[in-house]
Design a protein that fits this description.
Blueprint: H1 2-39, H2 43-66, H3 71-93, H4 95-113
Helix pairs in contact: 1-2, 2-3, 3-4
């Protein structure tokens, strides 16, 4: 009986982790696809942007779980992760394209609120 419960727990845990990874992957793919279409990036660059996005989402999720009790530290760690992501994106795409991308996001965010 104990072995069955342990097995069931392992199956549920593996399924949950797989779903969370897929969710991050889906979000990263959606953002990378939108960025690729808007900035007219090539496939190789799409893959690099996708990898950066995936890592960023995974880090943010882990940070949220780890620091959910300490809001001040959580906020500073999120800012650090986002700044690191933006720095890597600048090296990959160039500052001008990144600036255009973030202006696009800002404009779309305003449009979605109305």
């Amino acid at each position: 009986m104990k072995n069955i419960l342990t097995f069931l727990f392992a199956v549920v845990l593996a399924t949950t982790l797989s779903a969370q990874k897929k969710n991050n992957s889906d979000k990263a793919k959606k953002v990378a696809t939108e960025m690729t279409e808007f900035l007219k990036l090539d496939y190789a660059t799409f893959n690099k942007v996708y990898e950066l996005q995936s890592k960023k989402f995974a880090e943010l999720k882990a940070t949220n779980k780890e620091l959910k009790e300490d809001k001040t530290l959580l906020k500073s760690k999120k800012k650090e992760i986002n700044n690191e992501f933006k720095s890597k994106l600048n090296r990959l795409l160039g500052k001008e394209k990144v600036k255009i991308w973030f202006e696009y996001l800002k404009a779309n965010k305003k449009n979605k609120k109305h």
